[in-house]
Each structure stands twice: as C-alpha cells, then as structure tokens.
Fold this protein.
Amino acid sequence: MSQPSRNPDPNSSPSPGGTGGQIPVLVLAGFLGSGKTTLLNHLLHHSGGSRIGAIVNDFGAIEIDAMAVAGALGDSTVSLGNGCLCCAVDAGELDLYLDRLTRPGVGIDVIVIEASGLAEPQELVRMVLASENPRVVYGGLVQVVDAAEFDDTRARHPEIDRHLALADLVVVNKADRAGDAERVLATVRSLVDGAAVVPATYGRVDPEFLFERRPHEERIGQLSFDDLSTADEDDLHGRHAGHLHAGYDSLSFVSDAPLDPRRLMRFLDSRPDGLYRIKGYVDFGPHDRRNRYAVHAVGRFLRFYPEPWPAGEQPRLTQLVLIGSGIDAPLLGKELQACKNDAPHADEHGMWGVLRYVREPEDEQGSEEPPV
C-alpha cells in the first residue's frame, strides 16, 4: 500500500478536478514478445470513443486519437497532425509528456505507458506516483505474461516473480497457444499479491476492465454508472459470453444512507484478492456534511479526494463501482450494505482512517512509494 498522508483537514479543497477531473495513468509492462503492443492496439480499436494517450517507453510520447494510429506504435516515429516526439523517457521527461497529454482541450481520457520489454515496472510506477502533475492519477500496473513461453521466460528472467507480485492486474496472454494454460494460470495466481488474473488471446482484454468507454458522461467508476444502472449484471456479462477474456465481475452499489467511515475502512482494508478496481463517491453524512469523498482504489493503492457537494445535489448518494476477477459480487454488496450509518451524530475520531488516505495539497509534489 502506498504511504498515507498526514492528518489533512477534511474540509480542505481537493486536488484540481478530484478523481472526476483526473486522468488515470496505466503502466503496461511485460517481457519482450508478451503482447503489450497487441493489447494496446486492441484497446485503441475498442476504446468506444475514449481518447487514449500513449507513452511508449522505447519510442517516445504521442497524442493518440482512438484507432487513428493503431498498429503504428512499432515504428520509431509516429507522425500526427500535431507532430511527434521520439526520445527515451526518464523521470523528468515523463512529466513533460504528461503535461502535454493532459493539457485542457486535448481531450485525453486515459494514458497508457507501454514499458520496454526489459523495463523495471516498479520504477515506472514510482515515477507516476511521484508525478507533479495534479491532473493525473495512478491507474494501476498491468503486467502481460506470455502463457506459451512462461516457463522459459521465468527461467531466464527470475525477476518476473517480483514483477508479478507488484501487479494490480495480470493478463495471461496467448492462452490459446499454451498446452497447459490452466497450470500457467494457477502458477501466476500463486505469485501475485491479490491481483486479478485474466486469461486472454491476442491481447483481447475488455477495455471496460481498465477504463470507461463513455467519456462524454459523468464518471462514477471505470464503467459509467449509466451503463450499470440501465443494464443488469447478467446483460453486462452476456455481451462477452464465450470469450476467453471474459473473466471479470462487476458490482454497482448505490446508497441514499451515509456510510460509516470506520466500517468502510474495514471493508477496504479486507478487500479480497482479485478485486482490481474501486471508484466512485462516498457520503459520510454527519462526519463531513460539506464534502463528498471521491474514492480511487486500484490493486493495493488507495486514495480519497474530498470535494464540495455540487450545489443543490439531492439526494446525496454514495455511488461505487467495483471490478475484479473471481470476486463474490453479492457478498461484497452485502458487506457494503453493512457499512451504512444511521447515527445522527459523528464519531469524533471516525474519519481518522479515511484521512490517512487524503492527499494534502503540499504533498502534490511528494514522492510516494509504489504499492508493494
């Protein structure tokens, strides 16, 4: 878990835009030939209108309109109307590229950093967490594994075990080419630290597992809340029935009663293996009547962002989306129901657990540790 910040004021202003105005930055890692670029191209082709910015560790940083340059990322130079960049990425340059991709008016919805096949993913995660750009938020480490070559790759590069232990999501790619894919999946699951593990062929992971595909609507989570409220869970999964990559579950939770901060923190601290993503808004009722709290959790990373309730917003709702692989969605729903709070008065110390994960303004330039 990343290091929490120090006792901030619950009524302080959030970082610019909160999670609603911040752009998730995904780190996409894996050894050479595992299928990272194939997965990235798949995301570009199936972004559903979301505009993806890509920073390719070996080749530079490019502003990418969905589908416009899919398949061209293997070139040393990609030329768009706005020009191109072609140079190696280091800590200083990363913020320059993030600034370019997150300028107001550019319209980027998600940024993917494709690491070199020999990169150290922990360092890339550290760079994202230490970014001084208030418009971005860490979106997780996605590690791609070649199922067909897993044993040989692991023998040549034993550090893969450490990389898998850092991941928030592991895509076991080329599962169709592995003679014993189930054994590989079981081995990978034994090496991860609570991460979701999803099998795939040709990098075909549903983009909704990673980011929203309806950027024009208000974002409650990685899936837009409208998607989840107009179609039940069976419909959501039915669209991908029979696909090898359809190994995820999702849960939408809405409450018009405030949540108890202590109970919610117990829930978050005990979240199960495979629960990859939690995002949304929480009403803590009498504990902070001025603010709602945007919550952003990916893998073991957790952050809260207090932000004033929109003027006239009634009723005040808690709205959350949870996404994972192999999770018990009905049980998680019951556990969230148990977090409701009907007490009219606040527990004096009830918010302490939440406030440990609120980032103070002076920490915007801080250097956080990546989740370990």
